[in-house]
Amino acid sequence: MRKYRPDFYIIGTKYGRTEDVLPMMLQHQVVSTGFAANIDLSDLIGLDRKVVMPELDKRVPPGEREAKSALAKFLELKPGDVIALKAHSAPAGTQARLVIARYAVVSGDTLPSYRRIEGLGHTVSVDFLAEQEPIEFPYGYGKTIHRLTNEKHIGNIFQTYRPAAELGSTDWAGGTGQSDKSTYETHVKSRGSYIMSRTHNELQNTLRKTLEAIHGIANVAQEHKFIDVMVSLEDETILIEVKSSPSPTTCIREALGQLLHYASRLPQRENNLRFVVAGPSNPGPEDLRYIEYIKKATHLSLSYCTPSTYVPPTKTGMFTDCRHQEA
Fold first, then answer.
1. What is the mean pLDDT of the chain?
2. Closest of 277, 279, 276 to residue 306, by C-alpha
3. In 108-221, where does DSSP find H-type helix?
4. By the 8 A CB rule, do 112 and 79 touch?
5. Can you give the pLDDT at residue 162?
6. What is the C-alpha separation between 146 and 109, in angstroms, rounded?
7. 248, 160 in Cβ contact below 8 A?
8. In the beta sheet, which residues pair with residue 107?
9. Rg (CA), the chain
10. Could you report the per-residue pLDDT of 243-270, keeping only the tens digit for each?
C-alpha cells in the first residue's frame, strides 16, 4: 500500500469556448487538453518540468505560449491528483463565477496512463467521482488548466475530496460511548470509492460529536435502524442523513427518500419529526431555493447543514438553515 499526497487541479471541458468535451471524457474515462493535439508527448510523462519545458519549446510552434503552459501543467499530473472539471468560468455581472461539473482522480500506479484520442487530443486516465449537480464558486479561473496553490480555494473547491491527513485527525478526546467510523486508508487502487466512503464517515463522526455537545450524549444515536444520526428529544425526533457530494442539492436529492423511508418504520409515537440533510458544502442561492421549494410543496420540516453549521431547533420549533458563506 502506498500513501500519496495529491495536487489539486482545475481543467476546462470546453474546446474553442463552445465545444463541450466532457461527454467524451466520461466515455473514455479521461481528462484531456486539445492543445498541439498532433504532437506525441508520451515520453514526457513524469519528467521534471526543467526537462519538459525545453522539449515543449522544440515541439510546439513558436508563439503558442498558452499551449506550452497548459501542456506543462497537464504533463505534471500524477496518480492520486484530484481534478475539478470546469464547465465554465464566465462572470455573473461583476462577480467572478466558477462552475464545476464533475470531479476526478488521476488513476495509475507510479505514472498516469497517457494516450492521444481523436477529438480530445492529449489524455490521462482518471477515475470519475460521484455524479453531482454543477457547483458554483465565486472564483475566476479562466485558463484551461490550473494547478491550485491557494489553500483557501483548495479547501472550498476540494473540501469533499481532500485526504484524511490534510483534513486533520478525526480522533477526539471526549467520552461519547460511541466509536468513530473508520476514516483512514491508503489503497490507491480503490481511490474513488474510498474517498467518498472516508468523507461520509468523517462528516458523520464530526456531526455526531457536535450533536452530542448540543443535545447530550444520551439523546444522540448513530446508525440506529440504519439512520446515520438520530436525536431523540422530549418533544421531537430529528433524523439526519449524511451525504458526501460537494453539491448540497445532490445531497438533498439523494437523502430525502431515505429519510422518509426511515421515518415510515419508526414507532407511531415518534411522529413529531424533523429531517436534516448534512453535507460537506455550504448551500448557495440555488440550493436554498430548492430547499424552500421542497418545504412549500411537501410541508416537511426540512433543513440542510454542514457539521459546523448545524443549529438546534429554536424555541419556536423552527430550524435556521445555514447560509452560503462567501470565500
1. 82
2. 279
3. 151-157, 164-167, 191-215
4. yes
5. 59
6. 23
7. no
8. none
9. 22
10. 888 889 989 998 999 999 999 888 765 5
